[in-house]
Write a structure and sequence with these properties.
The complex is a heterodimer of chains A (313) and B (249).
Chain A lengths: L1 E4 L8 H13 L3 E6 L7 H5 L4 E5 L7 H15 L3 E5 L2 H14 L3 E5 L1 E5 L2 E8 L4 E8 L3 E5 L15 E4 L9 E8 L12 E5 L9 H11 L2 E4 L1 H5 L20 E5 L5 H7 L4 E6 L12 E4 L2 H16 L1
Parallel strand pairs in A: 1-2, 1-4, 2-3, 3-10, 4-9, 5-9, 12-13, 12-14, 14-15, 15-16
Antiparallel strand pairs in A: 6-7, 7-8
Helix pairs in contact in A: 3-4, 5-8
Chain B lengths: L1 E5 L1 E3 L6 E3 L2 E3 L5 E3 L1 H13 L6 E7 L3 H11 L3 E6 L6 H15 L3 E4 L11 H9 L2 E12 L2 E7 L3 E8 L2 E5 L11 H7 L4 E4 L12 E6 L8 E4 L3 H15 L4
Parallel strand pairs in B: 1-6, 1-8, 6-7, 7-13, 8-12, 9-12
Antiparallel strand pairs in B: 2-5, 3-4, 9-10, 10-11
Helix pairs in contact in B: 2-5, 3-4
Classes of the chains: A alpha/beta (313), B alpha/beta (249).
The structure holds flavin-adenine dinucleotide (FAD) and adenosine monophosphate.
């Protein structure tokens, strides 16, 4: 049986639908786990996809340590052979803890999963996404996190699963939350956008990012930034793409005034099409580009925005 | 007392090769993982002069370069658990837990994501093995009377929080600006103590995860580059290509 730990807000998140989809393809026996405040509200939605849903709204379900205890306890009770989690930051903090508790192998950030006799085989990226690794683990139970935006979402199974409320014995986490800020953008979320327009140091000033935003608005795209632009204080950290920022894989990634450093490529190098605008014909970004314009962005971008507008209208 | 876990990884500019299904690092320039440098720097800011700061490295003999670098930045001494086996993160945590129990630090720094395995798991796994709390993706940290106050990045923004030590802190860009070692400190580092041990001494000899293959899969790129001397013509052509050929807009 596969235990699928689902992320949710008022609905199941896309990450949850993806790992439910992955679980459906691996096994007929799938159990969804919903933990934390509001879990009950999404139980019937989850029951569309699995034969069993475990729900717990214990107020102590905060923090990775308690979440991991809950998941490993449920996994042991249900005798799961696999625990699947989203490869979000939160998921990748909790999943290794679950693996330690279960003394199980941990496979991280899988881009594809397949069953093998007595275990699981996955692919994932390594060496700043320059290398694709195939890993396998054979054990009574395997813990795996799954990279967002890599799996086809689940299909309703046609029947409704049983929903069970479960009780857990948790202690206070010892963590006091002092404040939270949620970065909101009026545009499509960077990691879900099918087109991303990213600006780098070549923009020269925060004001010039208006060029990036205008093109993004015309194309309905997300806005990204390089670390150089974020470090300069031109853009919020939430927009950073790369090793220490977000990983994106859009249909088109348009990099403007971006040199194409390895740490940046590790966050966008798997994009289906890469488009570069740079005045330096030798810039490394052109080596990985499908399309590009060699020229000054101050001249190119206004023309590009106009041409995109014409196409849209 | 502070422990900094460190790793030796291929330099970001190094060309990573693969042959016969394995990454080949012969001849690649290796360096202390940039993510680990933030932890080393933070340890040196907390314990000025480097007193009671220890580098801990779990890896092959080449890791000694990274250890010397951390010592040259200012850490006091090091523990090197030397092995050629690439261990899974749960086994690593089991070994490192034993080292932490020997050393009894209040704080352990771990790089937020490693540049070889692309893994974010070690800090969390170690914290769990110890039964400790952890702060991930930490961008601000202050300590007073055994209480850590921190700001860190979450999936959708930022969070500030407070917890009692001991704790594991995983680092992130923005935490600080790591220093460059000075020449006198590089010389001094050569004389600092590195205690050597092996995974077997902690009862671990094999990995729970097997590497089946490692390959470099480069997506072939079209490389259709347009000359921007006539911006309007180039822009019109690019939009046309993206619409009609790539069909992405
Ligand atoms: C541990 C570590 C983690 C890192 N993580 C990340 C990360 O997550 N994301 C990230 O992006 N970086 C990361 N970096 C930094 C990375 O190494 C680069 O320094 C950074 O990506 C460079 O950003 P850039 O391309 O905007 O700037 P630059 O490298 O300065 O490139 C600017 C480009 O703009 C072009 N340009 C200038 N003017 C014009 C013009 N008028 N018209 C057209 N083109 C122009 C230039 O030719 C140049 O190619 C990391 C580094 C380290 C050490
Ligand atoms: N204003 C700038 N415009 C374009 N490139 C720059 C600028 N400042 C620094 N660089 C280059 O960006 C790279 C990284 O710089 P740094 O991160 O500041 O060490 C180096 O190749 C610098 O030459």
């Amino acid at each position: 049986m596969i235990l699928v730990v689902c992320e949710f807000d008022t609905k199941l998140k896309k990450s949850a639908l993806e790992i439910l989809g992955a679980a459906q393809r691996l096994s007929k026996s799938v159990t969804a786990v919903l933990l934390g405040t509001g879990a009950g509200n999404v139980a019937t939605e989850a029951a569309q996809y699995t034969s069993q849903v475990l729900v717990c709204e214990d107020a102590l379900l905060e923090g990775a340590k308690n979440m991991a205890q809950a998941i490993s306890d449920l996994s042991e009770q249900a005798e799961a052979t696999m625990v699947l989690m989203a490869g979000s930051r939160g998921g990748r903090e909790i999943a290794p803890r679950v693996a330690v508790r279960l003394n199980a192998p941990y496979l991280e950030d899988a881009t594809s999963l397949s069953s093998i006799e007595g275990g699981l085989q996955i692919q994932h990226y390594a060496y700043l996404a320059r290398v694709t690794e195939t890993l396998e683990a054979i054990a009574p139970v395997v813990v795996c996190s799954v990279k967002p935006n890599t799996q086809v979402v689940a299909e309703p199974s046609g029947s409704t699963g049983e929903i069970y409320e479960v009780e857990l014995e948790l202690a206070a986490s010892g963590i006091k939350i002092l404040g939270r800020t949620v970065e909101k953008t009026s545009r499509v979320a960077l990691t879900e956008a099918s087109v991303v327009v990213t600006g780098g140091r070549g923009l020269g000033s925060p004001e010039n990012f208006a060029l990036i935003e205008s093109l993004a608005d015309v194309l309905g795209a997300g806005v990204g930034a390089t670390r150089a632009a974020v470090d300069a204080g031109w853009r919020p950290y939430g927009e950073q793409v790369g090793q220490t920022g977000k990983t994106v894989q859009p249909n088109a990634y348009i990099a403007v005034g971006v040199s194409g450093a390895v740490q940046h490529l590790s966050g966008m190098g798997k994009s289906k099409n890469i488009v570069a605008i740079n005045k330096d014909a030798e810039a490394p970004i052109f080596k990985v580009a499908d399309y590009g314009i060699i020229g000054d962005l101050h001249a190119i971008m206004p023309a590009l925005i106009e041409a995109a507008k014409k196409l849209r209208d | 007392k502070i422990l900094c876990l460190i790793r030796q990884v291929p330099d970001a500019e190094a060309k990573v090769k693969a042959a016969l299904g394995r990454v080949d690092l012969d001849g690649a320039t290796m360096a202390l993982d940039g993510m680990d440098e933030y932890g080393v720097e933070q340890a040196l800011r907390i314990n000025e002069g480097g007193a009671n700061t220890v580098a801990v490295a779990l890896g092959n003999s080449r890791f000694e370069d990274a250890i010397r670098r951390a010592l040259a930045m200012g850490l006091e001494r090091a523990v090197h658990i030397e092995t050629d086996v690439l261990l899974d993160v749960v086994s690593q945590a089991q070994i490192l837990k034993a080292v932490v129990l020997e050393e009894t630090p209040d704080l352990v720094f771990v790089g937020g994501q490693h540049a070889d395995t692309d893994s974010q798991a070690l800090g969390a796994a170690l914290a769990e093995a110890l039964g400790w709390n952890q702060i991930t993706w930490t961008t601000e940290l202050s300590l007073t009377d055994g209480i850590a106050k921190a700001t860190h990045d979450t999936d959708d923004g930022k969070e500030s929080l407070e917890l009692a030590l001991p704790a594991v802190i995983t680092t992130q860009q923005g935490l600080n600006e790591p220093r460059y070692p000075t020449l006198p400190n590089i010389m001094k580092a050569k004389k600092k103590e590195i205690r050597k041990t092996t995974p077997e001494q902690y009862g671990v000899s094999s990995s729970k995860v097997r590497i089946v293959s490692q390959e470099i899969q480069e997506r072939p790129r079209l490389n259709k580059l347009l000359d921007g001397k006539d911006p309007i013509a180039a822009a019109t052509e690019l939009i046309k290509l993206l619409h009609e050929e790539a069909k992405v807009i």
